[in-house]
Design a protein that fits this description.
Length: 419
């Protein structure tokens, strides 16, 4: 009798297992970034494939973010977008407003692998659109200062410390800007920073200023007000007055990230995404430091998320990949590549991210910044608004127009996109 019971139990288990729907098929996954970032995502895909051999992940790579955004739009119009796309929080609202993204709240609630409470809320909240979670964030980076420790040592300049100020940063940058052969041309620059709104924003917030009239429901930029102009003038003066960053011609000849990698630039402002290429390409000793501060300690969010396209014909398999990518195992894989500051608290505070034997040794800087992180406005046309503002800012940054004129023009040009 006992053998019969065991036999029946085994038969029932086999029967019901066989009757369960088997998730299988091909899932296209599109990412952006440089070759080192692509290699990180390939590592993730390879690990997923070993656990889910019935699901084939087709990895699609578009290097530039603007080209990437245009490709997603073109694919949506053509009716054949990738199943899963990696989208920055500053960009996804454009697609959510068109109904092109599948809300993921239901999937997340039913998941046995990941739970919302395990993520940093600062990473989750920007991806909530009209009350629904649209995408699952993989990272929660801030803006930091990468610095060449060898150049600091040679110039006998102390390394950047927690709580350092704009003036501390400027003083260091001035000492670290060098004309070695005294021919009037700078051979080494103290700093490099992109002349864009996403780089300017934390300076404005730190000075008590604002980008828009209402963060929840923005209707206009407010970049020409007194508090905002103070930060903008300091930011622009780095190039026009102090000359501690390359001018337009020098930047065109060799961009600041390349100068940093080649050892001719002491400090470079970037998010976590630069780590894989710096680990691969940099020959000198380097680390990261917090963003220098002004009146307030404020940083800016850099976060990308896995989004499921509503036109996907294999949503269950696509979700299986998103779920794995944002599980402890998936985020641990990405953390070890250096690409991300994990959005899962447990992984962010693990040795996979805080490894003292792997550069940058001061990765805790990223976690310390999380309470001060602020997201840019979530708006369907924010990409255009940001591009317009960055265009005008660049004119001021390279000395072609005044800060006031540039910001007034940005305010005016952006109005149609808010409308």
């Amino acid at each position: 009798m006992r053998r019969l019971v065991v036999f029946l139990f085994a038969f029932i288990c086999i029967f019901f297992t066989a009757c369960q729907p088997r998730v299988a098929g091909t899932v296209s996954f599109m990412v952006f970034g440089d070759p080192a970032e692509l290699a990180a995502y390939q590592t993730l895909v390879d690990s997923f494939s070993k656990k889910h051999p019935s699901i084939h992940i087709e990895l699609i790579h578009i290097p530039g973010q603007e080209e990437y955004r245009k490709q997603i739009t073109a694919d949506i119009i053509a009716g054949n977008p990738a199943d899963v796309v990696l989208i920055n929080y500053r960009r996804y609202a454009e697609f959510a407003s068109l109904g092109a993204l599948e809300p993921l709240e239901r999937y997340l609630q039913q998941s046995r692998l990941i739970k919302e409470r395990n993520f940093y809320p600062e990473a989750i909240e920007p991806f909530v659109w009209n009350g629904e979670l649209m995408c699952i964030p993989q990272n929660i980076s801030s803006l930091v200062v990468y610095y060449n420790k060898d150049l600091f040592d040679q110039a006998e300049v102390p390394y950047p410390a927690k709580g350092w100020t704009w003036l501390d940063f400027l003083s260091a940058a001035q000492v670290l800007t060098k004309d070695f052969n005294h021919d009037g041309t700078r051979d080494q620059f103290g700093a490099g920073i992109e002349s864009s709104l996403v780089r300017l924003a934390p300076f404005i917030w730190q000075a008590g200023g604002h980008l828009v009239d209402d963060r929840a429901n923005p209707s206009t930029l407010v970049l020409d007000q007194e508090g905002e102009v103070r930060a903008e003038r300091f930011f622009v003066a780095l190039q026009t007055v102090y000359h501690v960053v390359p001018n337009a011609e020098q930047e065109a000849a060799e961009d600041s990230q390349s100068r940093f990698i080649n050892g001719r630039l002491a400090m470079f402002f970037n998010s976590r995404r630069g780590v894989p290429i710096y680990r691969e390409s940099v020959a000198f000793d380097w680390d990261v430091a917090p963003l220098p501060r002004a009146d307030f300690e404020v940083n800016i969010l850099h976060s990308d998320a896995y989004c499921l396209m509503s036109a996907s014909k294999n949503k269950e398999a696509a979700w299986a990949f998103i779920e794995f990518a944002n599980s402890v195992e998936g985020q641990t894989i990405m953390a070890r590549t250096g690409r991300t500051v994990p959005s899962l608290k447990a992984v962010a505070n693990s040795s996979a991210f805080l490894d003292p034997n792997t550069k940058p040794v001061s990765s805790q800087v990223f976690l310390d910044a999380i309470p001060t992180i602020r997201a840019l406005p979530i708006h369907p046309r924010w990409a255009e608004i940001e591009n317009i503002t960055s265009e005008e800012l660049a004119l001021a940054f390279y000395g072609e127009v005044s800060v006031q004129e540039a910001m007034q023009r940005a305010n005016l040009r952006a109005r149609e996109y808010f409308e």
